[in-house]
Amino acid sequence: MGTALTPPRSPRRGRPATAAPAPRKPARQVVFGSNSPSETRSLGRQLGRRLCGEETIALSGPLGSGKTCLVQGVGRGLNVTLPINSPSYVLMKRYRGRVTLTHWDWYRLADTADLESCGFGDPQMEPGVVVIEWAERFLDQIEPPFLHIELALTGWRSRRLTMRVRGRSARLGRLIRELKKWWMTSRDGRPGTRHDPGH
Ligand SMILES: Nc1ncnc2c1ncn2[C@@H]1O[C@H](COP(=O)(O)OP(=O)(O)OP(=O)(O)O)[C@@H](O)[C@H]1O
Ligand SMILES: [Mg+2]
Question: Which positions of the chain have pLDDT values less than 70?
Answer without folding.
Answer: 1-19, 22-27, 187-199
